[in-house]
Amino acid sequence: MFRRTIAVVLIVLMVLGGWHMAPTLAQEDNTIMVLAAAESETPVMAWLDGFAAQNPDFSFVLSLFGDDASLAENIAGADLLVYPNFEDAPPIDFECGTISRAYVLLPDLGARYLASTDCGDVVSPKTPIMVDLLKFMVSPDGQQIAIDLGLLPNVIEVTDQGGVTVQVPQPVRHIASAYGVATYYAYVVGAADRIVAASYIGAKGPAVQDTLRKIDPGFDARFNAMSALNQNEINLEEVAALQTDLILSSARAQWLDSAAELGIPILRFEGETPERLIEAMTVIGAALGPDAAYRAAQFNAYYQQVLEQISAEVTQLNAAPAKVYFSGTEPLRVASGEMYQSEMIELAGGVSVGAELTGFWNDVNLEQIAVWDPDVIFVPTYGGASVEAITGAAEWGILRAVQDGKVYQLPQFISPWDTPLPDSILGIIWMAETLHEGLDLGCEDQASYFYNEFYGYNISDEETMGLCN
Description:
The protein is α/β, with parallel strands linked by helices. The protein is 41% helix and 16% strand.
């Protein structure tokens, strides 16, 4: 009955010129059939018109549903669904096909594409169009449409991890990330295309840069956009020239006072604990709009769930915790107890020998390390650190970890797995499996899920095996 009624309304509205149909290609196979909640008609039509203005060949038909029954009755003919209960899967089943992740348009409105013909290696010609449309709807242009309609605020207030309350005008279009850790926060919340310049922690090597290019074709432009952009130095003239409207910074950056004179909002981050990492993701998500906020919440939920799983598995082992020396960029440099690396070791069921030290990296001597006599030594991937710098030095042979062959370098795919950023959850999994022989937390499966879900990268089995084994 609902479909028949809609068909009559279709005819009437087409005659009157009021039906929501793009005029040129409305009956062609690539026309996107949009089904939306009736109360969302105004913004949905504005987003569709906005996308059509940028893509002249785009065509669509917009239908509306009023309740769950009419949604269920009409969803089979839809390519794209806009609905308030976006966290729930749409009421449709495919023999094969794709239902996309939720794209969050407003705090109470989301969208998914429904590609019933995406089967095996076959991708519907509509799918790339729908992806582009959804990306537009959550982009700064899409946010601006919602702001103009009074559905999103034009300024968002957040308190950053430096304790500063920051007013962030919306939408944020151009981000300069001077903190190599925060750059990856932006990637995980879907804001990579807003970055105009960035520092990337651990990205000096060609292999890592090649991987970043696979994930982000714009990596080189972002990485090379400025002559100076890091915790110690920033070229403020270049920041201004890039029309930057948000700077991501370490709370310890040396140039914060001078950069404040530009009048550009600065978000300061300091995430040296799991709780602070979760907070950092929440802060950046809130500053960048509803979709970014939702993505941040999705990551945080995953992160907490995996930590709970690791804790449960490690607790059941009832094993004495291994003593772990986490080396820095130099062999005689150790992570303090206030650093994220020590937190990771504890979460993995070990104990950091530097747990009583304060500050950040501490320089120590071999005599002190011999007193600790660690069971395991972990080495990072950055700053020229290597396993060979320890195992190849005769004087280190007095240590149990060296004698037992338990000196390991942490993996890195995009970013180092030991730093306070999203990828570190894989580092904790890897540490736990390394410290507890026989413990299987599914490192390869988790890596596959993580990079696909949070970076949109389909990592290969060979790549996950190389990381986890």
